[in-house]
Amino acid sequence: MAQEPAQGRSQIVRRTLTEILLPALGFGLGVGFATQAYLFSLVTGLAISGTIYVLYRLDLLLVRSHLYRLSRDWARVGLEMAFLLLEHLLGASLALLVCSRLFGLRIVPSAAWLVLAAMVVVVPVIHGTDMALRFYRQMKETERQEEQLRALATQAELTALKAQINPHFLFNTLNTIAQLIHTDSERAEATIERLAEMFRYVLAGSERELVPLNEELAFVNGYLEIERARFGDRLRVRRRVDPQILHVPVPSLILQPLVENAVRHGQGSDGSINLALHVEVVAGELVMSVADRGRGMPSSFRLGESAGHGLRNVDERMRKTYRDTRGLEIEDNEPQGTVVRIRMPLGGQA
Amino acid sequence: MNPMRAVIVDDELPARERLRRLLAEIETVDVVGEADSGQRAVELVETLSPDLVLLDIQMPGLNGFEVIEALQDPPPVIFVTAYDEFAIRAFDVNALDYLLKPYSRERLAQAVGRAQELCGEDRDMGASFGPLLETLASEGRYVDRLAVRDGERIRVLDVEQVDWIDVADERVLVHVGDEAYQVRRTLTELEKRLDPARFFRTHRSALVNLSKISEVIPWFKGSHKLRLSSGAELDLSRAQARALRKLLEW
Questions:
Q1: Burial B122-132 (b: 16+ CB within 10 A, else e)
Q2: Cis? peptide before A109, omega within 30° of 0
Q3: Is pLDDT of A15 > 60?
Q4: Are A221 and A279 in contact (CB under 8 A)?
């Protein structure tokens, strides 16, 4: 999480105060009480506190990062507390030893032991409580974030499903069938069959991540057959599919939204819909593209802003499925219209 | 009473056929024409002056709303849509009738009956469509295309192509390059239905396409001149110069 610089600075100040200066004062007063040499004692206190702090940072750097792998949270906290205690004992003894030699302090043994014991117990308890609190908050936060992620995933699934079964498409198709029953009953029957196949594929597709390319293409063909019943000869599709790659796994329901987008937005001013559908291998990648000869995307078009847009869904899914993806690419077609393209590694996996 | 003369507008043949078949069962309606695009719809309505239009919304070229926008004196309309949450909310707000595909013949008959009452009242339909178009615009659905007069013909312009729109001799003219086409709308009406992020009112009688401005030249007493990429120059009033300065952040 990015932190505001100002907040970062205030945190450093707070840390220095609570973790070095305040303990240093406590240690110094304690040592002073034991030695009756207060000036040197404050310096000694600072040395103790500093040594402990250095040990603590070293421990954070070298040991704690491994502790985070421990699965049981409370075992982790216990270990962390033990480490803290050890650091305090070690740091205090070390600094005290060095300083007493250096300043020639004469320690009154009974008082010194009392103080040392107090410091070594009280300070880790304060630190430990603080740490436990922070840890608890962190755990709650992680839980909340996981909850949020789960909600997002469900939302994404729902949106994907809704985008596939575009209500506009569904109701228009039903209206078409209602007429075809009277004028062309065989076509009506075929349209119902295609519609049923589409729904089955969508329902299965929400469980299957990857499908062989030829299944995805069959789905797109079924969709186009239905649109043909609506638009008649106004809809023309040129296909170029490399027969070598028909069994390559691709994300399910990734191509149809591109075709549907082209059908909806790629109509020329005379109402004709001329599409070119290409699936081929280019530079070791599987490339799918759909080109139309409509009036082109408005210059104000932004993928992220188009809520409920099938294209955005494809873009998001590409980014989730493949690590090094450019996502959905949108270009102008020549002389007019739009080309929408996706690329994926041939293996089908990220 | 004479039957109502109706026009069917839908870009899909089976949809038109179904409407025609179901309307044939209603004695009080006579289908006098069919259009398969918004542009042809405008031409057909202007030549035939029907009593009723059954108008599909999603069409290539002009959509149903842009057809309404283009008509000078629109007849009663029954909107037809498969699914359009935006539009349906706008219809409900403005108490306008619509059919959802696939509609039943009972629902169609009901809608036609209501239209007939409207017809008898001889209401000014333009007055009731204005608020509808404004509702849509307030929801961010601005007009993308304009139908303009090109002699006898209707020409469809992408609003992105338009350089500027102004008023001359009480005629509203849409300028595209060297051409100027007349629209039968007031400038204020157009301003309400065009995306304000795209069109800007330079003074009382002109709207300019912001993306076509190539230069802003300081003129006298705080007023400015706008030079467009087409080379045309427009006046910019002092008050509007301030507003434009904010918008373009110059």
A1: eeebeebbbeb
A2: no
A3: yes
A4: no
CATH superfamily of A165-345: Histidine kinase-like ATPase, C-terminal domain (3.30.565.10)
With vertex at residue A9, the alpha carbon angle to CA A8 and CA A13, rounded to the nearest 5 degrees, is 120
Would you say A315 and A305 are in contact if contact means Cβ atoms under 8 Å apart?
no
Residue ranges of A 286-345 with Cβ closer than 8 A to chain B: 294-295, 298-300
| Residue B73: both structure tokens together | 């004196």
Q: Write the CA distances from A76 to A63, A134, B139, integer angstroms.
A: 12, 14, 54
- Residue A239, classed as helix, strand or coil, is strand
Highest mean pLDDT among A73-87, A298-312, B129-143: B129-143
Interchain CB contact of A171 with B (< 8 Å): yes
Beta bridge partners of A212: A249
Residue type, B10: D
Instruction: Print burial letters for B49-77: b (CB count within 10 Å at least 16), e (below 16).
Output: ebbbbbbbbbbbbbbbbbbbbbbeebbbb
CB B30 within 8 A of CB A240: no
B17/A183 CB distance under 8 A: yes
Question: Which whole-number Å values give the CA distances from A239 to A252, A262, A279, in the listed order?
Answer: 19, 14, 8
- Cα A213 to Cα A52, A217, A248, A339, A342, distances in angstroms: 62, 6, 6, 20, 14
* Alpha-carbon dihedral sign for residues B72, B94, B28, B11: positive
Residue A350 pLDDT grade (very low, low, confident, very high; cuts 50, 70, 90):
very low
Give the count of beta carbons closer than 10 Å to the beta carbon of residue B183: 21
Which range (A304-313, B10-19, B48-57, B199-208) has the least confidence?
A: A304-313
3-class DSSP assignment, residue A245: helix
pLDDT of A1: 37
Is residue B192 within 8 A of residue B134, CB to CB? The reply is yes
Residue A153 CB partners (closer than 8 Å, separation 6+): none
Question: What are the two backbone dihedrals, phi and then psi, of residue B204, each rounded to the nearest 5 degrees?
Answer: -55, -30
Q: Domain boundaries in chain A?
A: 5-151, 165-345
CB pair distance less than 8 Å for A300 and B198: yes
Say yes or no to pLDDT of A61 above 90.
no
Helix (H) or strand (E) holding A275: strand A273-282
Q: What are A293's two structure tokens?
A: 């000869």
Nearest CA in chain B to A175: B102
Exposure of A350 in the CB half-sphere (CA atoms within 13 A) = 12
Judge if pTM exceeds 0.90.
Answer: no
Q: What is the DSSP letter of A269?
A: T
Residue B241 C-alpha, separation from nearest chain A C-alpha, in angstroms? 24
CA A336/CA B50 separation, integer angstroms: 36
Q: Which domains are delineated in chain B?
A: 4-138 (3.40.50.2300), 159-248 (2.40.50.1020)
> Which residue is closest to A180 within chain B, CA to CA?
B14
Element (H, E) at B147: strand B145-150
Q: Hey, what are A9's tokens?
A: 């600075």
Task: Calculate the dihedral angle through the C-alpha atoms of A100, A102, A104, A108, rounding to the nearest 10 degrees.
Answer: 0
| Chain A hits for B15, Cβ within 8 Å | 172, 175-176, 179, 230
